[in-house]
Amino acid sequence: MPKYDVIVIGSGPAGNAAAYALKEQGKNVAIIEADLWGGTCPNRGCDPKKMLMSGVEAKMRVERLTGKGFETSPEINWEELMAFKKSYTDSVPDSTQHGLASAKITTYHGTASFVDSKTIAVADQKLTAEQYLIATGQSPTVLPLEGKEHLRNSTDFLALEQLPKKVAFIGAGYIAFELAIIANAAGAQTHIIHHNDQPLKGFDRELVNQLVEHLEAAGINFHFNIDTQKIAKQAEGYQIIANDFELTADLVIGATGRKPNIDHLALEKANVDYDKKGIKVNERLQTSQAHIFACGDVLAKNTPKLTPVAGYEASYVVEAMNGQVSAIDYPLIPTIVFGDQRLARVGVSEKELAEHSEKYHTQTIDLAGWYTYQRINDQGAKIKFVYDEADKIVAITCLSQLADELINYLVILLTKQITHAELEKFIFAYPSPASDLSYFI
Amino acid sequence: MPKYDVIVIGSGPAGNAAAYALKEQGKNVAIIEADLWGGTCPNRGCDPKKMLMSGVEAKMRVERLTGKGFETSPEINWEELMAFKKSYTDSVPDSTQHGLASAKITTYHGTASFVDSKTIAVADQKLTAEQYLIATGQSPTVLPLEGKEHLRNSTDFLALEQLPKKVAFIGAGYIAFELAIIANAAGAQTHIIHHNDQPLKGFDRELVNQLVEHLEAAGINFHFNIDTQKIAKQAEGYQIIANDFELTADLVIGATGRKPNIDHLALEKANVDYDKKGIKVNERLQTSQAHIFACGDVLAKNTPKLTPVAGYEASYVVEAMNGQVSAIDYPLIPTIVFGDQRLARVGVSEKELAEHSEKYHTQTIDLAGWYTYQRINDQGAKIKFVYDEADKIVAITCLSQLADELINYLVILLTKQITHAELEKFIFAYPSPASDLSYFI
């Protein structure tokens, strides 16, 4: 039976990075992938989504300047845009596997199942290792509806060869928003259907509402407080049925959440604890079995399930596997909804802010009239700061075409505790979003 | 005769900022402007240029994706784009003057001339002050050619109501480049004529050459080693004549440099030293008269003449006027050529790098294949690091659609001496240019 120092299960950003780093430590490492080498992020997540978003951004940069330099905005050719996406994604699985193999990390393809806490089975083979890292990520949940077989998911959307005329998304989290923004910009009649009136929970409600208004003006149809009960196939498409609501679309995307990929792992055989949110770990990312670690989206955790967080955890695990580390300590974690106008936040969670609202006060700055935003006609650009009782910034939300750039600068400034006086002594390429930073801090 | 604590001459970014800050110190302040309130940068410099550049960026974002999501790129409507620019610039002079007046800073409009070192004349009035700040900036030079009266300058270009069919720029500094990029993207046949084969001196030669290639592919015609001798008005336009070279254009822009605005100041009456490069100051920005300070582009200095540098100097002068400051110490100063693909640099000057090339070694990283750049089809994206003998980064040049964003991040990282290990513990909004930073440091 092949024996390794460490077996990594899952080759997404977390597992992949960990495998390389463990190998660099001189360990004998194997990695198992049940699906596409590279995992969700580069194959059917962040990266392909943002390839498509390139088209949206380009179109909308022009559209914002309609009447200000351009007569009309260009139309997106879906087939070409999808081919552009594939020019990136097509090579990901092979290049990921070849990279691992070149680094002398043994690769196994197939579903991994624990036989016992020391042994794992994959593709009719049994392997053993001193330590394990479970980094199998998540996949879309399927709403338990009548007609649920008619639902498609984000993976299907990101592979659509043709864009249907009418697309509906059930759910209003960031995945639904981002894919709806793409569909709408590419010319589909686009609907977002949500069971309550609080889309993008986890983001500031005031700025979420403004983003919704912006997207409504751009053509997206929002339907709130709709409890979808049934999907029925009709001659003219798929009918979404709820009490007092009915909508027929050519494509219905279920975007109501993601679940940890643990069903096939046979965790009980290894005595690894888990719940429906994922694998339970201690503050050293050890499961209930001290030699089995887990990280990334498969964890039952409250920190956002994002690629860079998974990467951060992977780096931590690589050290933790050698012992002698203190509990994991997360840095600031920005979260973002991409699009034309982007919504980004960082800091204390909205849940905490709402629960202890008496401790916090806010300031919202309208950026639309600032040169940087006026220049790109970024109407509606805003930034909201939340301060604690000592007037310390504890959270920031930004709605702008430049929100990602701005939030990333602010992550550095907050982490390094750079003061206003210090920031005033920086000289940045001008004019630019960076040149405005001293007005915020 | 009205008497002030401080009289500021020039209301550009430097003079304006200094006037407000001095007023906040409780001083009695007057400010004199001979031309447009607000000065060059917001009226006929960085800001209007980048309003027009918005159109270029938007068009080129689409053009880069031609065949990758778009059939064609949209055409720029010059009149509309110019109206968009004016929507920003039109209100600058009035709002600048009203802002100053509201802050109870006395404003005088007219040409200022020293009567003696304590007295200044403006619009038939004499004023006196304890201290002076000269911040009159620069204006375009005029080449001493036969037919020089046919040359127009950057100010004229930025106010063009219609875009001529064929535009030629004489000179190949960043102003010529940026305006040529705008003219070319907006549909004019565009030429850059330069007396040697080293455009954009001050930037890394290798990456300048690549930018030139990129712009040639985009349609700009470069003519190097052409010593223009004469401009002749012909029926079909303005003929640029040199040995073995002749070109006729509808508009010829002289962009061969800028000269300090000191001619009308009667500096000799105040015994203020100057040369053709500008006003001479010591390390406390005092002129040869200790009570007369100067800052910004009007200085004879080696630091780049840029708005944020002028602002930095203005802040310094405000303290220096109260005495007890140490010599001015400049932070890192990034410089940039805006455009579709932007060229940005920071660090030790190219002159120093060339003179002591034995002390330095370089590494150029091709970014085009990196996800961040592949996503926007940023072909030719590159970053070049220069290291000293201790492998410390001493200069960085970046050629990319994202060069401004990247160089501004790097300014922060270098200034705060953030290490690779530290940077790996940051989590950024992903994917984004910031998420790549740990690969550079």
UniProtKB/TrEMBL annotation, chains A, B:
Hey, which family's this protein in? Belongs to the class-I pyridine nucleotide-disulfide oxidoreductase family.
Per its UniProt record, what InterPro entries does this chain match?
Answer: FAD/NAD-bd_sf (IPR036188), FAD/NAD-binding_dom (IPR023753), FAD/NAD-linked_Rdtase_dimer_sf (IPR016156), Pyr_nuc-diS_OxRdtase (IPR001100), Pyr_nucl-diS_OxRdtase_dimer (IPR004099)
Q: Cofactor note from UniProt?
A: Binds 1 FAD per subunit.
What SUPFAM superfamilies is this protein classified in? FAD/NAD(P)-binding domain, FAD/NAD-linked reductases, dimerisation (C-terminal) domain
Could you tell me which residue ranges the FAD/NAD(P)-binding domain spans?
4-314
What intrachain disulfides are recorded?
Answer: 41-46
PANTHER family of this UniProt entry? GLUTATHIONE REDUCTASE (NADPH), MERCURIC REDUCTASE
For NAD(+), which residues are the binding ones?
Answer: 171-178, 257
Q: What is this protein called?
A: Glutathione reductase
Alphabetical keyword list: FAD, Flavoprotein, NAD, Nucleotide-binding
Q: Has UniProt tagged this entry with the keyword Chaperone?
A: no
- Domain Pyridine nucleotide-disulphide oxidoreductase dimerisation intervals: 333-433
Which Pfam families does the UniProt record give? Pyr_redox_2 (PF07992), Pyr_redox_dim (PF02852)
Name the source's superkingdom.
Bacteria
Q: What are the required cofactors?
A: FAD
Keyword Nucleotide-binding attributed = yes
Molecular function terms from GO: nucleotide binding; oxidoreductase activity
What the entry lists under Gene3D superfamilies is as follows: 3.30.390.30, FAD/NAD(P)-binding domain (3.50.50.60)
Give the residues the record marks as binding FAD.
Answer: 50, 297
